[in-house]
Amino acid sequence: MSATEKIRREKWIDEKTKKIKEITVKGLEPEIQKLISRHKQELKKLRTLHEAELLQADDRVAQRYVRQCEELRLQLEREKEEQCHRERELAKQRWAGGARRSRLRDSVLEVFSRLLLTSSQSLSSLLI
């Protein structure tokens, strides 16, 4: 093979290789477009799913917040009732203590009155 023939052959091989590449790229282009389209659809689907998951997470957080608020309200209501009960009991005890003191005072006054009456009668009988 001569040098010119060899150069011509290499040039021919290069042209054929280039043409095969172009044909291959053009032939694969529809498949590539399908892959790109499918990829875009998958991304859209994933974004939609992700958005739905975020909404569900927001709903769960909101429900937990409402539940915690209700539990706190019930706890505060119980504590208020317990405090009211303690205050009522304390008031009853004070009133009972006051009534007891009042009865004791009345009893002491009655005893003192009887003693005074007895002593005045004794003193009168001694003077007569």
What's a concise summary of this model?
With 128 residues, the chain is mainly alpha-helical.
- In total, the number of strands is 0
Largest β sheet strand count, sense and barrel closure? none
**Order of SSEs:** H
What is the tally of helical segments?
Answer: 1
Low-pLDDT segments: none
Backbone structural class? mainly alpha
Report the radius of gyration as a whole number of Å: 54 Å
Strand content: under 5%
Which percent range fits the helix content?
over 70%
Measured between the Cα atoms of the first and last residue, the distance is 178 Å
Shape: rod-shaped
Instruction: Give the total of domains.
Output: 1
Mean pLDDT: 89
InterPro entries: CEP131
Protein name: Centrosomal protein
GO cellular component, one term: cilium
Quickly list its features.
single chain; Centrosomal protein; CEP131; 128 residues
Description:
The protein has 128 residues and is mainly α. The mean pLDDT is 89. It is built from one helix and no strands. It has one domain (1-94). The chain is 98% helix and 0% strand. The relative contact order is 0.03. It has one helix spanning 3-127.
